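Ops channel
N.P.: pipeline sanity check, posting one input/output pair.
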């Protein structure tokens, strides 16, 4: 993985290169950003740059043995830790990332470093309720590995993808490891949710904030992927909201079916809400509870977007609305129900439901509460 394989993020790449060239390599770094920004790919590209024996022009060479092994996630001095789990495991059985490494390499190669947690959990075939976890045993394994001398590269690295999946015991052990000085050893943590990490872990790592990819860059990327209509490319870039993964779904048309389904569910929720149909709202929640967790999260994101857009329309700012087609038609009619009085509490309900779904809350309970709370707030203003 070279820096040139990473879409956008020019400033950040330059900053990482400068840090290496000036010898200011911090021993513990926390890359923060959603999967679609390329945070994981960047962490790998950074370590590759550091270990490349022939780096030039602000990038690794891509050809030396270190480059090739790191790009394939098969370098003996690059240790990977990520959440794992499997269906039908015995109680008390703790699994290690290494057992799943071939599967992880496969996904990483296929997605060119841009994979979402959900794509990984799907690859592990975890189903709807099981979650990936990083166990305390993983921390013991890390100490064992770090006590060996480095093989080839001058640096060793432990890359922890999604440290928020650690339980408290694991997090405390990792914290102890971060506190110890390990010669020429880097800890690269890549998180989507820094607020779920122990404050002590945050304070012992240097943050590398990975921003959303700029719309203009995603627009070019959409064009490069065959979207010839500039208006369509621009709309896709806006909808992708800084995420290359989301843009990929939009370009592939994968999101179209799901978007339509989410839009219909949103319209239903709002119609039932302003008509105070409580029984039907509970039916709506039960239907949504059956969807895959990824789609539930996408539905909540779409709902937040459509509510904000409706609010813009109500506020008389149609020129900054990104809607078109049937979304525009519905939201124009629905706009009188969303105003300064309720927009913030509505968004807060969505954020709360999204956090609970992320933390594996029971979806029937989460969405029933959500639908009833929303219905109380939706009225003609
Ligand atoms: Zn190289």
């Amino acid at each position: 993985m070279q820096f040139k394989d990473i879409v956008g993020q020019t400033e950040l790449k330059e900053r990482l290169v400068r840090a290496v060239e000036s010898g200011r390599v911090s021993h513990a770094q926390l890359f923060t950003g959603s999967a679609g920004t390329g945070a994981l790919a960047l962490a790998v590209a950074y370590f590759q740059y550091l270990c490349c024996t022939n780096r030039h022009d602000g990038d690794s060479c891509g050809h030396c043995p270190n480059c090739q092994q790191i790009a394939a996630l098969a370098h003996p001095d690059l240790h990977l830790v990520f959440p794992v789990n499997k269906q039908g495991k015995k109680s008390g059985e703790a699994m290690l990332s290494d057992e799943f490494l071939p599967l992880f390499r496969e996904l990483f190669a296929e997605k060119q470093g841009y994979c979402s947690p959900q794509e990984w959990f799907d690859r592990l075939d975890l189903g709807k309720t099981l979650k990936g976890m990083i166990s305390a045993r993983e921390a013991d394994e890390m100490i064992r590995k770090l006590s060996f001398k480095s093989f080839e590269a001058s640096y060793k690295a432990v890359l922890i993808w999604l440290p928020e999946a650690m339980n408290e015991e694991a997090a405390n052990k990792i914290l102890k490891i971060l506190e110890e000085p390990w010669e020429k050893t880097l800890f690269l943590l890549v998180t989507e949710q820094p607020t779920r990490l122990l404050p002590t872990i945050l304070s012992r790592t240097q943050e590398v904030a990975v921003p959303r990819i700029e719309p203009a860059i995603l627009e070019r990327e959409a064009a490069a992927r065959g979207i010839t209509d500039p208006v369509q490319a621009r709309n896709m870039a806006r909808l992708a909201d800084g995420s290359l993964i989301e843009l990929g779904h939009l370009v592939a048309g994968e999101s179209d079916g799901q978007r339509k389904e989410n839009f219909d569910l949103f319209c239903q929720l709002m119609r039932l809400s302003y008509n105070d149909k409580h029984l039907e709202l509970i039916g709506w929640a039960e239907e949504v509870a059956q969807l895959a967790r990824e789609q539930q999260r996408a539905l909540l994101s779409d709902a937040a977007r459509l509510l904000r857009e409706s609010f813009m329309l109500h506020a008389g700012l149609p020129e900054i609305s990104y809607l078109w087609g049937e979304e525009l038609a519905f939201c124009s009619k629905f706009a009188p129900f969303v105003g300064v009085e309720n927009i913030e509490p509505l968004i807060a309900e969505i954020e709360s439901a999204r956090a609970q779904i992320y933390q594996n809350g029971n979806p029937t309970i989460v969405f029933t509460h959500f639908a009833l709370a929303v219905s109380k707030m939706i009225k003609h203003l």
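N.P.: looks fine end to end. The mean pLDDT is 91.
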